C-alpha cells in the first residue's frame, strides 16, 4: 500500500485493486475460519426423529433417546437380531380459549430404525422410560461379545 | 382438546445457551423448548426438560423475571463406551420476563416424564375504572 497516496492524483489503480482483493481474501478466510469454529463437532445424525445415543459395554448395547412427555403406551419398540425400531407418536393437547405466547414444542409421529453393530438376543431386550428419557438395553449375543484371550506362558 | 397432529416429527438439535457470562461448572447449557399460553386467570408454561428430576429443577421468580434451571446427570454408565452420539445432555436454563404481576404464593409446578408444567396465577386486577364524561 506504499506506492500511492490518496488525493495525490498518482493512485496506481491496479495496485489498489490488488490490495483490495488481498484484503477481501483475508477477510473471507477469517470469517470462514470463524464459521468453521462455530460448527460443532460432526454428529452422525441420521436425520430421523428421535435422536439417539448408542453405547456399549461388555454385555449390552444401550440405546437412549429423549422423548419428553411420551408415555410408554404411546411407544412401540421392536427388535430383530441386529436392529431396532422405535416408533410412536408424541401428543400435545391443543388448549382451547387460550392465547399462546410461544409454541416451540412439537407433536407428531415418528419411526426410526437403528442398526446395531453386532448381534443381540432379541428376547432379552429391556426398555424403560424415565424422566422423558427412553433407555433400551440390548444384551449382546455370545458371538458379538469381546472375548479375553489368555496368553500362555511357557 | 383439539385435533391430534398427524405430522411426522423432525429431529432438531438442542439450542445451546449463548451468553457471555461463564458458569462456574463446566458442561453444556441448553435452552428448553417451551409452550406458553395465557388464560384469563393464569399464565401456563410447559417446558421440555428430558432427564431432569424434581429435585434437580429450580424455578425462581424475582422482579418479574422467571428463571428455569435444571440439571441432568450423565445418562451413560461408567463402564459404557459410546458408539455414536446424536444428542448431548447438560443443564437447562432459560429466563423470561413476565408482563403480568404473578401471585407468587400460588405458583404451581409439576414435573412428569421430563416435562415441566408451571401455573402462574395472575394477581386479580380490579375491574377497570370507568370514567364518566359529564355533559353540561
Structure description:
- The complex is a heterodimer of chains A (154) and B (136).
- With 154 residues, chain A is of the alpha+beta class.
- Chain A has one helix at residues 13-38; strands spanning 52-56, 60-66, 75-79, 83-90, 99-103, 108-115, 126-130, 133-139.
- In chain A, the strands form two sheets. A four-stranded antiparallel sheet of chain A has the order 1-2-8-7, with no helix packed on it. Chain A has a three-stranded antiparallel sheet with strand order 3-4-6, with no helix packed on it.
- Residues 37-43 of chain A have low confidence and may be disordered.
- In chain B, a hairpin with a 2-residue loop joins strand 5 and strand 6.
- The relative contact order of chain B is 0.24.
- In chain B, the strands form two sheets. Chain B has a five-stranded mixed sheet with strand order 1-2-8-6-5, with no helix packed on it. In chain B, strands 3-4-10-9 form a four-stranded antiparallel sheet, with no helix packed on it.
- Chain B has 136 residues and is mainly beta.
- The mean pLDDT of chain B is 86.
- Chains A and B meet through strand 1, strand 2, strand 5 and strand 6 of A and strand 3, strand 4 and strand 7 of B.
- Strand 1 of chain A pairs antiparallel with strand 7 (81-85) of chain B.
In short:
The complex is a heterodimer of chains A (154) and B (136). Chain A has 154 residues and is α+β, with helices and mostly antiparallel strands.
Question: Any key phrases for this structure?
Answer:
heterodimer; A: alpha+beta; 4-stranded antiparallel sheet; B: 136 residues; 5-stranded mixed sheet; 10 strands; 0% helix
